Structures are given as structure tokens and as C-alpha cells.
Amino acid sequence: MGKVEAGPATDSKPGLARPLQVLVADDDALNLRVAARLLREQDCSGALVTSGDKALQLIAQREFDLMLLDISMPQMDGAQTLQALRERERQGARHLPVLMISGFDDPATVARFLAAGADGFLVKPLAADRLRAEISRLTRG
To answer: Among 78, 103, 104, 108, which is disulfide-ready with 71 (CB 3.0 to 4.6 Å)?
Structure first.
């Protein structure tokens, strides 16, 4: 779909030595625009895709530091994408932290995705402070 363009590479955010590469997979254009804006505010760059299969194709081509993954998408949904990603890791690929994103915060759904290998769960609409906290938690050393 497009790129998340970052500003100049600076150390302006505490704990970030370089702009993080973040992959966002969501089939809704508005959600992608919101995520892109919030990530730019965090001095992150990366890519935006509209399905899980496109996300996996991009992950095979380049490295990302973090992925935001919508649970409901056409072709390949978030559960299928997460399962395929974690299978790649069992085959030796580097672990990619994944934050599941959804408009629903049902505790059973959250627990199911965490048990399946998600590293966190955020409810849409994404809030800048929650996203910042999760980025910090998952990318610091």
C-alpha cells in the first residue's frame, strides 16, 4: 500500500538509536493512515500492507523491528498470518514482535492471540500513548 516515511534519523526519542522499521497490516485505509501518522510521530518508518499474505511476502524480503497486525483481514487474516510467521521462526527465522490490533477488546480474543504467539494487543482506534508504551516495551533490549 505504501511506506511510512520517517523524518531525519535522530536520537530524539529516549531509547531509540535509529528509526524502527514497523510493518502495519490492516485492510482498512483509514486505520493505515492513522497508524502511519502515529508511527511517524514515534520516528518510525516501515511499510503498510492490506493483507496478511502481503505482509508475509514483505517480511521475506526485508527485516522489520515490529509488526502491527489486524486480526480481521481478507485473504489471510491475523490469526493465519501470526501462525505462518511463528512457523517461519520455528524454522530459524528471527523473532518479529507482533502487536495484534482490533476494534474489539474481548478478553477471550486477547488471550487467544497471546497464547498463539502475539507479543501484545492494542484496541483500535490506536492511542499514541499506548502505542508508544508497547513500542518501547517490545523494542528495548
So the answer is: 78
Residue 102 lies in a domain: yes
* Three cell numbers written together for 50: 492490506
* E-strand stretches of 51-97: 66-70
Do 24 and 55 touch, CB atoms closer than 8 A? no
pTM: 0.87
Peptide bond into 74 cis (omega under 30): no
For residue 98, being part of any structural domain is answered with yes
Residue ranges of the chain with per-residue pLDDT less than 70? 1-17, 141
User: How far, in Å, CA of 43 to CA of 19, rounded?
Assistant: 6
Confirm whether 107 is domain-assigned. yes
How many distinct structural domains can be found in the chain? Answer: 1
